Amino acid sequence: MPSVPKFTHLDAQGHAQMVDVSDKAVTVREARAEAIVRMLPSTLERLIAGDMPKGDVFAVARIAGICAAKRTHDLIPLCHALALSAVEVELAACANDAVRIRTRCKLNGRTGVEMEALTAASVAALTLYDMCKAVDRGMCIEHIRLIEKSGGASGHFLADDTDVAATLRPTT
User: Where in this chain does the record put each Molybdopterin cofactor biosynthesis C (MoaC) domain (predicted)?
Assistant: First the structure.
């Protein structure tokens, strides 16, 4: 049988499998992700005013993101079911007709939470779109990305924040 790296999604025959993490050390693992939803200025004004036909968009998107993080293993093949110790989803209106969604997932475990943070950001963005589409079908979801990861053998990752940060300003 050919040699297979210890932590891989491929078995000795090259077939997809869930990684066996039982030999990994339990450590504190945390990941942060973000997504940007761009929209018409009038849509952002209505969001800020709380004047959307489907109600409190930010509250529903926040809950959707939290629920999605907890169900990532049902959505992304080969992800482990994780007992997350914390999930945060923050939505902020920005002055250039966008909403920035930032998420944070944390646990003490043997595998990272990057996919959970990214899933939370993605689903929160999709929920925001769904709740606003009657007003603005031209919204654009963009820049879904990991912005920071810590814990585990691969160490710390911090994204270069200059590309997106330069285009977004919080509303005053």
Answer: 18-152
